[in-house]
Amino acid sequence: MKNDFSRWQRLFLFCLGLFIAGAFTMKWMESDLLYDNENISIFGLELFYPKEKIVEIFSGISDKVKTILGYHLSFDFIFMAGCYPGIACLCMMARIKNSRKSIKSILFSLAFLQILGWTFDVVENCYLLKWLKTPVIGDEFGFYHVVVYSKWIIALTGALFAISILVSSVFKRKNLKSAI
């Protein structure tokens, strides 16, 4: 059992490295993502901007900014390769630390769902890259938002549930040691 945990932990650390590398690179590029002397919000593109605003931004940015945004979205694929498998590893590590069958089943399901979350994130990026190339957004915008909200729900639920289980297992272990 300890051996299984250490395997998931090593895989998690590898994923964490990809996650940090992708996040650092994307953050480094964000200062160059400007439209009308304002920063372009990646969260805005994902969650908050109406389609007219996205079309306006993608139609109005310079070729240089389009290239940088394309690179940003490309590095997001590296970020994803660390994020979703990393969350799955957290779920599996928490599963090993928990003894309740129902919680183990939930954690396994959340780990498996990260594949779907990752798929949704890839679909999201493909839409953004398509719209960046040709800034015309049709009826698919509603589906796009369902995909984006779903990936966030899947990722955050998996991460927060697994982290809460792992943290509580650390406190349980400390309480057992102090009782002895």
Radius of gyration over alpha carbons? 20 Å
Largest β-sheet summary = 2 strands, antiparallel
Work out the strand percent. under 5%
Extract low-pLDDT stretches. none
| Structural class by helix and strand composition | mainly alpha
Q: Tally of extended strands?
A: 2
The 3D shape can be described as elongated
Distance between the termini: 23 Å
Strand order of the largest sheet: 1-2
Order of helices and strands: HEEHHHHH
Count of the separate structural domains = 1
Count of alpha/pi helices: 6
Helical fraction equals: over 70%
| pLDDT averaged over residues | 94
Give a verbal description of the structure.
The protein is mostly helical and 180 residues long. It has one domain (2-179). 85% of the residues lie in helices and 2% in strands. The chain has six helices and two strands. The chain is elongated and about 60 Å long. The model has no long low-confidence stretch (mean pLDDT 94).
Write a compact overview of the structure shown.
With 180 residues, the chain is mainly alpha-helical. Helices cover 85% and strands 2% of the residues.
Structural descriptors:
elongated, mainly alpha, two-stranded antiparallel ribbon
Write the layout of secondary structure elements.
Elements: H1 2-30, E1 34-35, E2 38-39, H2 42-48, H3 51-60, H4 63-97, H5 101-133, H6 141-179
Antiparallel strand pairs: 1-2
